[in-house]
Structure formats: structure tokens, C-alpha cells
Specification:
The protein is α/β, with parallel strands linked by helices. It has two domains: about 1-155, NAD(P)-binding Rossmann-like Domain (Rossmann fold, 3-Layer(aba) Sandwich), CATH 3.40.50; about 160-310, Dihydrodipicolinate Reductase, domain 2 (2-Layer Sandwich). About 40% of the residues lie in helices and about 20% in strands. It contains ten helices and 13 strands. It has a seven-stranded mixed sheet with strand order 12-11-7-10-9-8-13, covered by helices on one side. Strands 3-2-1-4-5-6 form a six-stranded parallel sheet, sandwiched between helices. A hairpin with a 3-residue loop joins strand 8 (about 210-215) and strand 9. Helix 2 runs parallel beside helix 3 (about 65-80), helix 5 (about 110-120) runs parallel beside helix 6 and helix 6 (about 135-150) runs antiparallel to helix 10 (about 285-305).
Length: about 325
């Protein structure tokens, strides 16, 4: 009887795995890829996300980016040996083996060229942060996807973190978010490299509609204040080299602050990614993601202008 139960469990597990969506990674130079593989490919985990598996990866990489060069071989090897992911030689080969693609290259400069190759396969795509290194590249990615009818989206994991989703309420009249803000020399939009996280948190609370940005830059931190078209104010503090994540939201005279013990893990994002590949429903509209890049572009121009207010392009 015991052997029969074991055989049944093996059969059910195999059937479930066969029904999973097959996902591929483009770019293995970020810790996100091994974190995602752990959540998707290990059904024994209590936090396992069912419905998809990572089955293939294209290594990619940017030799002149210190983060990419430092981690790419390590994460590629872990994907191959620990999670059973096939490493393939190019993006077209990857796309031929999967149902959907996660564009996970750590360097936003590579995303336009990589996205162009993925879009040619007509496979749906989730693009890791930063979407691009310039506003122009971000807009071109959106244009190319629309031209061929490919569903795509991008997001920081912090948008779906418990600390933010627990604060989202109707009637928010303003918000303040904070988090790390180190720079990477090759990213033209300096805030896109890491401050994208607290900026996404701000947009998760405020929604789109910012019309003007003012940025005060110092060596240790930036203060970036956005004015929304309805008169609301939202601000971000980006700390260097690193600092904790957090947020406060206002509803009239009521202030709501994040629980410092709330999780900032990847599982809520991975749940949304799998749901997207299953349903085709995009959780973050392209228009909002492009406005976030226009926000960072305006912040850079404000910095260059000595901190004067600058309108979004």
C-alpha cells in the first residue's frame, strides 16, 4: 500500500510538472535568476509558486558592468547544476524552447537589443528592472512590442511587496518612499540602476499622473519630489550606498507607515509573473512604466539644472 501511494505521488508530480508553463531567462547575471528558479523549480518549498518552471537560459552579460562580470558565471552554474536549467547559445534558440521569457539581464543597456530578438518570436515577456538605461530606449521597447502585438510588462519586486500592498488604499493624498540609490556609471538615467525600487513603490501608492519633478542631489542621498496633476505631492529619498526600504502614505490628516518587519521577498512578484503568462493580463500598464522613466529623466534634468523643477517629457 505504501509503495502504491509513493507511485501515485510520483505520477501526480510528473503530471503537474508536464502541465507547467516553460519559461526561459535572458541574462543570468543577477541574483534574481536563482531566486526565481528556487521559487518555481522546487515544489517541496513551502513558498513554492506553482504553474511554471524555468527550463532554459541564455547567459548574456556585460563585461564592462562590474555587477554582471562578478556574478554571471556563478549564477549560470547554479542554474545548470542545481535547478536543471539548460544553458542555450542564443536568444532565438531559447525562445524556441519556452512559452514565455523573463528578460533578466542586470544591465538595462542590453534590454532593447535583447527585447527586439524576443519580440521576433512573439513570446510574452516580463522585463526585469531597469527596463532600459534611457527614456528613449524604454519608449522604443514599448513601440516595438506594440508593432508586433507582444504582451510585456516590467516591475520592481518592491511594487508587490507586503509593505506596499498592505498600505494601498483609496484616497491617498500623498506619499514618501525611501530605499537604496547607488549609481552605475553606464546607466544614463542614474536613478534607474537602483533607485527604481523606491520610485516604483511611490507609483504603486500614488498611481500615474506626475507632471513635474524637483531633485536635490547630495553625495549621500537624493530627495526627489514629484507634483501630480491633481496637486498631490510624492517624494523619494534615495540613499547611498545603501539603506532600508520603507514608505509612508497620507490620506488627509491620516498617516500610514510601512511595517519594518514586512516581507520584501520575491514571491509576490513571481506570483504576478506566472499569472501574467497564464492569462495574458498585464498587471502594470506600459504607460505607467514609461511615465516612471519620464519621472527619472526629469529628475536627471533637474539635477543637471541645479535642482530647479522640471516638467516630464
Amino acid at each position: 500500500m505504501k509503495r502504491s501511494r509513493i507511485l501515485l505521488w510520483v505520477a501526480l508530480t510528473a503530471a503537474a510538472a508536464a502541465a507547467d508553463l516553460r519559461l526561459g531567462l535572458v541574462g543570468t547575471d543577477t541574483s534574481h535568476v536563482t531566486a526565481f528558479a528556487r521559487l518555481l523549480n522546487d515544489p517541496s518549498l513551502p513558498e513554492h509558486v506553482p504553474g511554471a518552471r524555468i527550463v532554459a537560459a541564455y547567459k548574456g552579460g556585460s563585461p564592462d558592468n562590474a555587477t554582471s562580470a562578478k556574478y554571471i558565471d556563478r549564477f549560470t552554474e547554479e542554474l545548470r547544476t542545481k535547478w536543471g536549467v539548460e544553458i542555450v547559445p542564443d536568444i532565438p534558440t531559447l525562445c524556441s524552447r519556452v512559452d514565455g521569457v523573463l528578460l533578466t539581464s542586470v544591465d538595462g543597456r542590453t534590454h532593447l537589443d535583447e527585447a527586439r530578438q524576443i519580440f521576433a518570436s512573439k513570446k510574452p515577456v516580463w522585463i526585469d528592472k531597469p527596463l532600459a538605461s534611457t527614456l528613449e530606449d524604454a519608449r522604443e521597447i514599448a513601440r516595438l512590442a506594440a508593432a508586433v502585438g507582444v504582451q510585456w510588462w516590467t516591475s520592481s519586486s518592491l511594487r508587490f511587496a507586503d509593505m506596499i500592498t498592505g498600505m494601498k488604499k483609496d484616497g491617498i493624498t500623498g506619499a514618501v518612499t525611501w530605499g537604496p540609490g547607488p549609481f552605475e556609471e553606464h546607466h544614463h538615467l542614474d536613478l534607474s540602476w537602483y533607485a527604481i525600487h523606491p520610485i516604483e513603490m511611490l507609483y504603486a501608492l500614488m498611481g500615474p499622473g506626475c507632471v513635474e519633478v524637483t531633485r536635490i542631489y547630495t553625495e549621500g542621498a537624493d530627495e526627489i519630489v514629484g507634483r501630480w496633476q491633481d496637486g498631490r505631492l510624492g517624494s523619494v529619498r534615495a540613499m547611498r550606498p545603501y539603506g532600508p526600504y520603507g514608505a509612508a502614505a497620507f490620506r488627509g490628516r491620516e498617516a500610514i507607515q510601512t511595517d519594518p518587519k514586512a516581507s520584501t521577498g520575491y514571491r509576490p512578484l513571481v506570483v504576478e509573473i506566472v499569472k501574467f503568462f497564464q492569462t495574458g493580463v498585464v498587471p502594470v500598464p506600459a504607460e505607467e512604466s514609461l511615465e516612471i522613466f519620464a519621472f527619472m529623466d526629469a529628475a536627471l534634468r533637474s539635477k543637471q539644472a541645479g535642482g530647479r523643477p522640471v516638467a516630464l517629457r
